[in-house]
């Protein structure tokens, strides 16, 4: 799980964060689009640093779960003991999905800027997706582009938006943990439930990995499209990344 996350994180560094910071609109002639890209750059930084925080929280939750399992603290009524590392991980997941959802709207606004279309506070990636049919809107510039360059985006975005919306209305949190004493593998999952609506979903580091992968692919497609259209300038040099490697 950590290896997959680390690979996705590096991909986001090179195809998300770096491309947004390297390629850019002309600040003098496209001030509005340049401002939107600055906002996207800020969110890209937030996504990266929050991703690292969630990874650290995941490692801590795994270590705590392993210790608890080895000490048999889950017996009888002791099972109700709150795991602080798991609680922190749940908060980390919530924050990450709120930020990554906002990031998608900035990508949408950049596409509108490339197409020289107006954008504003109501410009949202949801306008490029047909939620009912779980597909792209081909008459929308973002829908048309992403359907060609990131075919899994529509399904992922709908699930992301649904989860984000549930988080806004308040949810209960519980935890699913386990340890395979043969392989030593630890399982830590945060389960979120909407009170009174019988709606629940599970979150783990796998969903963070998927979000980084798809966001990186979508960002790369957007920037390359802008470069091909002559609306986005190529960088003079390669930018650095968040940090060299990720270690436990």
Question: What does it look like?
Answer:
This protein is mainly α and 248 residues long. It has one domain. Helix content is 57%, strand content 10%. It has helices at residues 2-22, 31-70, 84-114, 141-149, 153-168, 205-228; strands spanning 129-130, 135-136, 172-179, 186-194, 199-203. The strands form two sheets. The chain has a three-stranded antiparallel sheet. Strands 1-2 form a two-stranded antiparallel ribbon. Helix 3 packs across helix 5. The longest helix is centred in the first third of the chain and has 40 residues, at 31-70. The chain is elongated. The protein starts with a helix and ends in a 20-residue tail after the last helix.
């Amino acid at each position: 799980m950590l290896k997959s996350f680390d690979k996705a994180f590096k991909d986001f560094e090179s195809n998300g964060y770096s491309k947004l910071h390297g390629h850019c609109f002309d600040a003098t002639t496209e001030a509005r689009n340049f401002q939107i890209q600055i906002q996207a750059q800020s969110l890209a930084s937030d996504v990266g640093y929050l991703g690292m925080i969630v990874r650290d929280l995941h490692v801590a939750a795994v270590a705590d779960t392993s210790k608890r399992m080895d000490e048999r603290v889950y017996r009888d009524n002791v099972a109700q003991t709150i795991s602080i590392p798991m609680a922190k991980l749940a908060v980390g997941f919530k924050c990450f999905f709120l930020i990554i959802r906002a990031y998608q709207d900035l990508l949408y606004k950049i596409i509108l800027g490339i197409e020289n279309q107006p954008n504003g506070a109501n410009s949202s990636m949801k306008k490029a997706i047909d939620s009912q049919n779980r597909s792209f809107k081909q008459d929308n510039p973002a829908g048309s582009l992403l359907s060609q360059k990131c075919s899994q985006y529509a399904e992922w975005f709908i699930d992301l938006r649904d989860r984000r919306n549930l988080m806004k209305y308040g949810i209960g949190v519980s935890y699913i943990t386990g340890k395979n004493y043969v392989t030593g593998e630890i399982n830590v999952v945060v389960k979120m439930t909407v009170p009174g609506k019988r709606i629940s979903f599970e979150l783990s580091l796998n969903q963070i990995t998927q979000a980084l992968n798809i966001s990186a692919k979508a960002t790369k497609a957007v920037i390359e499209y802008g470069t091909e259209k002559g609306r986005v300038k190529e960088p003079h040099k390669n930018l650095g990344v968040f940090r060299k490697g990720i270690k436990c």
